[in-house]
């Protein structure tokens, strides 16, 4: 695999977004812009992907999608299926995701994929919670559902392939431990 310009240690900054149709009569300028910027006619999955520079990280997925100087490629089914379940869930829910991943162009698969928001701050927070007597599952469930509000209990339970009760139990246990810690500090 050859690394794209601006890649992060062999991983590319990738924006994946849902395609849709634009009515030329309702939005003539947008339709013209899309036709000029389009590099492929269709995507088998209904998604396109752009490999961007890490400097694009501050842009929303929709801002990256509108960049004409960055080509868009159809997202192959194999690439979509190679994404972790939580990334596919975000993509389905939001219509777009940004991630760091290594992309194998021969097999059309992503490897070592992580959402752009899943960076050091998230890991540091998990480590802090685990050091404060939370289990790994309690820390992850609490952080993802309660602190960063990335998923509902039901969505996160589906991603983890556990029951909603298990996620709620972990969240409640983490809440109790955090409240107890707060009481000790005061």
The biggest beta sheet reads: 5 strands, antiparallel
- The separation of the N and C termini measures 54 Å
For the biggest β-sheet, the strand order reads 3-2-1-4-5
3D shape: elongated
- Give the uncertain stretches in residue-range form: 1-8
Helix content percent band: 40-55%
Rg (C-alpha, Å)? 20 Å
How many beta-strand runs?
Answer: 5
In DSSP terms (H or I, runs of 4 or more residues), the helix count works out at 8
Question: Any idea how many domains?
Answer: 2
Encode the helix/strand succession as letters.
EHEHEHHEEHHHH
Based on helices, strands and strand pairing, what is the structural class?
A: alpha+beta
Mean pLDDT: 79
Please state roughly what percent of the residues sit in beta strands, choosing from under 5%, 5-15%, 15-25%, 25-35%, 35-45% or over 45%: 15-25%
């Amino acid at each position: 695999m050859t690394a794209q310009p601006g890649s992060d240690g062999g991983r590319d900054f990738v924006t994946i977004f849902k395609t849709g149709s634009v009515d030329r009569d309702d939005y003539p300028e947008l339709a013209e812009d899309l036709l000029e910027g389009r590099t492929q006619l269709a995507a088998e999955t209904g998604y396109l992907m752009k490999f961007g520079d890490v400097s694009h990280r501050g842009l929303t997925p929709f801002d990256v999608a509108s960049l004409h100087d960055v080509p868009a490629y159809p997202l192959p089914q194999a690439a979509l299926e190679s994404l972790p379940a939580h990334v596919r869930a975000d993509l389905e829910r939001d219509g777009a995701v940004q991630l760091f991943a290594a992309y194998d162009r021969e097999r059309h698969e992503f490897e070592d994929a992580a959402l752009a928001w899943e960076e050091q701050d998230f890991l540091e927070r998990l480590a802090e919670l685990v050091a404060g007597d939370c289990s790994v599952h309690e820390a992850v469930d609490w952080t993802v559902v309660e602190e960063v509000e990335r998923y509902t209990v039901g969505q996160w339970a589906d991603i983890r392939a556990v029951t909603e009760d298990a996620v709620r139990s972990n969240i409640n246990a983490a809440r109790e431990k955090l409240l107890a810690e707060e009481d000790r500090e005061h």
